[in-house]
From TrEMBL:
Span within the parent record: 1 to 231 of 290
Membrane topology: Peripheral membrane protein
Keywords noted in UniProt: ATP-binding, Cell membrane, Membrane, Nucleotide-binding, Translocase, Transport
Subcellular location, principal: membrane
GO MF annotations in UniProt: ATP binding; ATP hydrolysis activity; ATPase-coupled transmembrane transporter activity; cobalt ion transmembrane transporter activity
Protein name in UniProt: Energy-coupling factor transporter ATP-binding protein EcfA2
Amino acid sequence: MDITFKDVSYIYQANSPFAHSALKDLSFHIPSGSFVAIVGHTGSGKSTLLQHLNGLLTPTKGEVRIGDFHINSDKKPENLKELRSRVGVVFQYPEHQLFDETVEKDIAFGPKNFGVSDTEIAERIRDIIPAVGMDESLLERSPFDLSGGQMRRVAIAGVLAIKPEILVLDEPTAGLDPRGQLEIMDMFYTLHQERNLTTILVTHSMEDAVKYADHVIIMNKGTKYMEGSPE
Ligand code: ATP
Ligand code: MG
């Protein structure tokens, strides 16, 4: 699915004294299968932008198109659930959304919610566990008993288990040690390459943007400052 932003503006708490314009007339196009990095200072609107990709936010003005889904100021797409089964989002510190269940149940939560059968979920988990560099022996443990890096992998596995066509990553390596950061980024790159997964990465690391992405968008104060190839 291609992604198109057309003149998108977003105002938090519009029509209130606290109104804050977080995106201003933002336009760009991301072809299916790309690896795009979005960089920019804190507060430049990166997370706000990402939240439009699965219909969490609706533009105050303009339109967001994801494949055949149209998200505009009038409405969210009718089939929001289908959109969310096709756009997987790893939010900042995704492990905060895990439950004190078993790792297996935590990973199964998303696909179950989308009506995927138990046998299919079991198959997906077998496929994902090695892909995220996790040990199968952890499946019966509680994620709360694991290290920070392991918990992060569980949360990521939960998003991958949905089998999204587009993977949206909001600083997925924040707070990990340098080795964990490298392992996780290499994992995302491999997934992108091997599964032709469209990947949208928000990062503070220009190094990662240049290393992994084929296209970079630089945000500044809610607008697109620059975009192009990493070079
Ligand atoms: P960071 O790199 O720190 O994660 P960001 O680029 O992701 O920053 P956003 O979270 O998109 O930035 O925030 C953009 C702007 O919108 C900021 O000025 C922020 O204060 C404001 N903002 C974000 N969420 C809200 C909210 N719920 N209500 C009001 N303003 C908000
Ligand atoms: Mg952010």
